[in-house]
């Protein structure tokens, strides 16, 4: 089968094999740009299956540049593309959770659909991206945190990126970032901007053999647990949370999404720095909510309500701020 046609019926016994071959063709350059564009567009219009998501991720994993990670390392990452342009929640969560003693291999990129991605904000805070990339494995071992800049670890995507830009719409590769962490973490908190895809995404994680994950989506289409209302939660493997949670479940107040509206990298970096220095409000509560889910995932607490004080202590005693300072000095 070529990438110029739709994959077979998902019920076909050949669906997995066909998907694997198709994504190998895409990533290894055996299909021309126009064929790849038609293939990705056709998948998006039909709707991707969990098999196709899993096989795309498996193909990308087989071609990435890996690093070693300590036992128990996790990732906290969103798919992006939710259109809400919020402050960098998962980046702040990574610092808070790592300050609680859980190793965090943060996978991320520069902004694609927002004004400031994780890489942009960390750079504005003073992290040298080139050095942080070169020392990622060591900083994860020594400090308990690293930033895995996607462009450094996924050479197979170099050719696909301009094709995706030309298509100008979401494709299956918008879902791939959290599924292809170069540290091969076995536990992940994944935010997805499409609530209707949460279960499908969780099924793909199961097929990939994930040890434990929480796939979360704010019901307003937020790619993280929402501080404004209810969120969908789909557990994978050895972790449990209710299928629908609210800030009140964690003992936190609700705040409108506008209250954590972000800006450019400088603005987001200023907000993150203020958070680490003790500023309270909507941003802190959003970070605490998502950090609590990560701590449950890591086995540090059984419920969100139990985990929130642990995360809050890492902010209040300055541990998260000291970690950022040490990380910047390390880079």
UniProtKB/TrEMBL annotation:
Biological processes per GO annotation: L-tryptophan biosynthetic process
InterPro entries from the UniProt entry: Anthranilate_Pribosyl_Tfrase, Glycosyl_Trfase_fam3, Glycosyl_Trfase_fam3_N_dom, Glycosyl_Trfase_fam3_N_dom_sf, Nuc_phospho_transferase
Residues noted as binding anthranilate 1 in the record, renumbered to the chain: 78, 109
Record's cofactor remark: Binds 2 magnesium ions per monomer.
GO molecular function annotation: anthranilate phosphoribosyltransferase activity; magnesium ion binding
Gene3D superfamilies associated with the record: Nucleoside phosphorylase/phosphoribosyltransferase catalytic domain, Transferase, Pyrimidine Nucleoside Phosphorylase, Chain C
Origin superkingdom: Bacteria
Binding site for Mg(2+) 1: 90, 224
Reactions catalysed according to its record: N-(5-phospho-beta-D-ribosyl)anthranilate + diphosphate = 5-phospho-alpha-D-ribose 1-diphosphate + anthranilate
Pathway: Amino-acid biosynthesis; L-tryptophan biosynthesis; L-tryptophan from chorismate: step 2/5
Any one Pfam family match given in the protein's UniProt record, by short name: Glycos_trans_3N
GO cellular component, one term: cytosol
Domain Glycosyl transferase family 3 N-terminal residues, every copy: 13-63
Subunit-structure text: Homodimer.
PANTHER family in the cross-refs: ANTHRANILATE PHOSPHORIBOSYLTRANSFERASE
NCBIfam families, sorted: trpD
Name of protein: Anthranilate phosphoribosyltransferase
Organism of derivation: Sphingomonas abaci
